[in-house]
Amino acid sequence: MYHNFSVAPGKTSALPNVYRNSFTAGILEFTNEFRYSENNRYQSTIRKRTCNNSSCSARQSAAENDVTTVPTYNNFTTVINQVTRAIPSIMPIWYLLYEIRNAVVMVVPPLSLVTNSLSIAVFIHMRRKMQSELFLVFVCLSVIDTFALARVFNTYIVLMISRKMALLYFNVGCQMINWIQDFCRICSGWLVLLYTFERFISVRFPLKRAMICSRRRMRIALLCILVLVPVSEMYDLILFKKRYSSCYVVGNTQRKIYSYMKLYSRLLLGTLLPYTCIAFLNVLIVHYMTRYRKKRAALQAGTTSSEDRIQRSMTIMLFCASTYSLLTTMPQIIANCIDATNSVQIGVVFYMFRFVAVSCIAPLNYCGNFVFYFIGGRQFRNELFKMIRCRKPRGEYKTIDMVSCSRPNY
């Protein structure tokens, strides 16, 4: 999630709001809001009192009575002192990370829009020359990757056009942007798992691929992903609220509900499960491709058919794309797993790591697939050049599907 890097008036700095919806972030936000206010009228509510309840209630001012929801976290004072001492020494690093984040925000949204649009156009152009089961997966993945940067596009609009055009400043926009980005990122992981599984079947069971990964089954899998994942993230539309100039979950009860939903729905089922399966399947793909190559070398079969070359090229291309997705998402997964412990002993270094993982590395996952399609896919490059030269695809009325040709008729 992307939040503004705000500095309180009259102070050197405050930590950036990149960790808003976690339990530990509540400590920092509460401290920055009340300790660094202009009139400092709320500082007495944070200090530990040494008087009795009866005497304290008589000494409280009207301003102190306004604050009725002081967070009850463990080791509250220790963490606050640790962060306060660390702020002056880490400010140059924060400003550097903030500039890197701005550079990513300036580059990634237009790059993602251009590359994903080109990918969709090329796949539509070559739809009759590729396996029909994968065509829908690639098109859906390109669309999903574009909308997975909803908050980044919002930040891009704020930096490039006007702050007044930011949709997060409206309550409906606040809810919709968070919902769209969250379910699109989960869908992206499951779609990568879908074509990784298809590649594993084509490598391990090439003769059974037409039956296991048939067009009907792939469409059913796509429909399940595109329907169940958005429904599972509907809590964003209820819990997120626009408050002043920010968009976040308001209230302690709502934050607890959001934390549990984010833990089970988004982290465990939406992120850890698909990417763990992707890593496991990639290892198996490398293993079986290496064993197949050794068998061919032992049989001294130096010649390969055109179909085998096309399948091997596509497998290598999709293996690189899924590995890239796994590597760019892994830092964010690690940060979310550490955050899921709700530990208040986490220091400032973790906030830096999370900021880099979420704001600088994770967005790169949604604009890099085009590079692997272009480098690893000869057919993709040829169709791209033909489309740029405005040439019509050949064999428009002839479907060339290497797998469906050998599919038995039922």
Question: Could you characterize what this model shows?
Answer:
The protein has 410 residues and is mostly helical. The chain has one domain (76-406): Rhopdopsin 7-helix transmembrane proteins (Up-down Bundle). The chain is built from 15 helices and 2 strands. The protein has helices spanning 23-35, 53-59, 62-66, 76-125, 132-147, 150-160, 171-204, 209-212, 215-232, 235-239, 252-298, 306-339, 348-361, 369-376, 378-388; strands at 240-243, 246-249. Strands 1-2 form a two-stranded antiparallel sheet. Strand 1 (240-243) and strand 2 (246-249) form a beta hairpin. Helix 4 packs across helix 6 (150-160), helix 4 crosses helix 15 and helix 5 runs antiparallel to helix 7 (171-204). The longest helix is centred in the N-terminal third of the chain and has 50 residues, at 76-125. It is globular and about 65 Å long. The relative contact order is 0.13. Mean pLDDT is 75; it is low at 1-76 and 395-410.
At a glance:
The chain is mainly α. The protein has helices at 23-35, 53-59, 62-66, 76-125, 132-147, 150-160, 171-204, 209-212, 215-232, 235-239, 252-298, 306-339, 348-361, 369-376, 378-388, and strands spanning 240-243, 246-249. The two termini are 49 Å apart.
